[in-house]
Amino acid sequence: MDGERTFYFRTLGCKVNAYDAQALREELCARGYVEAASPDGADLLVVNTCAVTARAASESRRIAAALRRDHPDAEIIAAGCAVRAVPDFLAGLPDIAAAPRIADVAAAPPVSLQPPSGSQAAAQAGVSDFPRARAVVKVQDGCSHGCAYCIVPRARGASRSRPVAQVTAEALRLAAAGFREIVLSGINLGHYGRDLPQTPDFWDLLSAVGHALNAAHPGMTRLRLSSLDPGMLTPKARDVLAAQPSLCPHLHVSLQSADPGVLAAMRRGHYRPAEVADFIAGLSRIWPVMALGADILTGFPGESEAAFRTTLEFCRALPLTYAHVFPYSRRPGSLAAVFPGHLPAGVKKERAHILRDMAKEKKTAFARTVATLPRLTFVAERVRPARGVCEYYLECRLDGPGQGGILPRQLVAAVPIGVAGTDATDILVRAASARPRQAGPQGDAP
Ligand code: SF4
Fold first, then answer.
1. Residue among 17, 141, 187, 271 to mutate when testing ligand 1 (max atoms within 8 A of CB)
2. CATH class belonging to 127-369
């Protein structure tokens, strides 16, 4: 792969996929490639696929097929989870190369991708380093658990962790490169460290990264955690969370179900929903206002109406502020694919609909609460007008004066003044530095 060529990426799925794509992006740029803003005219098109649900895999395939149809002269590579985990993923799609691991895309000569740097070098290489304003750091990959509905272990292999020192160094590099929010991410953070000497767990890692960032960039860069396995929610976790002043008051838990029978059938009997609820209740002492998200998988084979109601009522009682709801989809090669008791599509759809409505009500109510807070901060992901995600994981829109001086990725202190958006779940804010907007028509008259 030599000479100046252009490439274009389509990345689907989770933050870990986005992280892998960023590492490849920087690798290709280091080799003289230039990133194209669209597939038109690009020499190399890469689809970084996802296989977490049947829908994600078919969407990945649809995109690859469309690119092939619309760009007959381009070199096209399909990479990642669906290529690895879905048999015959590219069947009937000629002239699309398969790269089971995203690193294989740049495999001439083979390389191991370096962690994305977010460095000036990347910028100078003509690549907007992280396309996102909030940097993701992959601390762990793969999974060794084996939930009955999941093929991720087949897509990403067994769990493997990055050493604490390596992750800490990367976080410090990103903070030095100007990132004001860093998201610690992985496929199953509950398995972090099991493969490392001294077997540090995820909370040891968070302590180390948090302290290093606070020492080097006090109050400048905040941390956010991606999805947590409920089995990780221990007294130690609470103590570590309480000791992290720069951590966003936001947790996302891969709950999946709250019915013990369904959890056991899912091969997720390692936690008890009641203990999850107790843990969350105990957090109010640390975070009086917090964002709480959950993954919920509904319609698992054998899930009775009563079991569904148990999950629904549990989630209604939990101080959730949003939820990702997935109707069960049969994954080829997963244990549950051959379980008895698969439910009709209509039932799964209806249950997902009910859960999503519940989650929407909760998000709207939470937005109303956040809109009454005296202060919040958001990371500018867009400017003029400035928009971005605040510590409570809600989208904020800056209204009125103060737009001019805001830069991408900047941490903006703001005062909530109301809710906005079709679902009334965005927060309208004014810049904390700007004089309050005068009521009445002159609005922002000086
Ligand atoms: S913990 Fe379960 S759902 Fe998550 S990646 Fe591992 S096997 Fe899949």
1. 187
2. alpha beta
| 261 φ, ψ (degrees, to nearest 5) | -65, -45
Ligand 1 atom nearest the C-alpha of 190 is 1
pLDDT of residue 400: 85
Q: How far apart are the first and last CA of the chain?
A: 58
Q: Which of the residue ranges 39-43, 83-87, 426-430 would you say has the lowest mean pLDDT? A: 83-87
Got the DSSP string for 296-327? Answer: EEE--TT--HHHHHHHHHHHHHTT-SEEEEEE
- Characterise 220 by phi-psi region: left (phi > 0), alpha (psi -120 to 50), beta (else): alpha
Residues above pLDDT 70, as percent of the chain: 90
Element housing 264 (H / E) = helix 260-265
| Res 307 pLDDT > 50 | yes
Contact (CB, 8 A) for 397 and 427: yes
User: What pLDDT score does 23 carry?
Assistant: 86
pLDDT digits (tens, 9 = 90+) for 48-103: 999 988 889 999 999 999 999 999 989 999 999 999 988 889 988 888 998 877 67
Same fold, 6-106 and 127-369: no
Quick one: average pLDDT of 341-347? 97
Q: What is the mean pLDDT of the chain?
A: 90
Q: Name the β-bridge partners of 71.
A: none
Write down the domain spans for the chain: 6-106, 127-369, 376-431
Shortest CA distance to 406 belongs to which of 437, 438, 381, 443? 381
CA–CA gap between residue 293 and residue 236 (Å, rounded): 21
154 lines ligand 1 (CB under 6 A): no
Class of domain 6-106: alpha beta
Q: What is the CATH number of domain 376-431?
A: 2.40.50
- Ligand 1 pocket residue status of 145, Cβ below 6 Å: yes
Neighbour tally for 8: CB within 10 Å: 21
